[in-house]
Automatic annotation (TrEMBL):
InterPro entries found in the cross-reference section: 3_dmu_93_MTrfase, Glyas_Bleomycin-R_OHBP_Dase, PhnB-like
PANTHER family tied to this protein: PROTEIN YJDN-RELATED
Domain (PhnB-like): residue spans on this chain: 7-124
Superkingdom assignment: Bacteria
Protein name (record): VOC family protein
């Protein structure tokens, strides 16, 4: 088992942890899966029934940030109360991450989106605080789905 960071987000998937890890490391630069431990054979314990070859503990790094994940079944699901912020240097980077992470159009608002696994992301410019200093800029941002830097600068 790889060494854990002092604080790490842990993502509970129903049964798609392996697919999610692979997807995320393909999206983010400087990323990799560091370990995958699978559930033991289901004949060993009643709690393992149906879990053979699913992820008991997956560890991966996204652009230098350590994550863990697991396949825990449908008991818990993701919601917008937790999200991950992707700080982007320019509009091209925003467009890239938006195209990769936004899969639920009805969840798009003010730079927030939801991916194909139900995880919420905030894809925003690194200078967002400068771009929403004035009420006019905030109003523009509130109408945006994906953040468009030029619209905020021109507000």
């Amino acid at each position: 088992m790889a060494e854990l960071s002092p604080i790490q987000p842990c993502l509970w998937f129903d049964d798609r942890a392996r697919a999610a890890m692979q997807y995320y490391v393909d999206v983010f630069p400087d990323s990799r899966i560091t370990s995958i431990e699978e559930y033991p054979d289901e004949s060993l314990d009643e709690h393992f029934v149906g879990m053979t070859r699913k992820v008991l503990n997956g560890q991966f790094i996204l652009n230098g940030v350590s994550f863990v994940c697991l396949d825990g079944g449908p008991l818990f699901t993701f919601n917008e109360s937790i999200s991950f912020v992707v700080s982007c240097k320019d509009q091209d980077e925003i467009d890239y991450y938006w195209s990769k992470l936004s899969h639920v159009p009805e969840s798009e608002q003010c730079g927030w989106c939801k991916d194909q696994f139900g995880v919420s992301w905030q894809v925003i410019p690194s200078n967002m605080d400068e771009l929403v200093r004035r009420p006019e800029q905030i109003q523009v941002m509130m109408r945006q789905k994906k953040v468009v830097i030029a619209e905020l600068e021109n507000a």
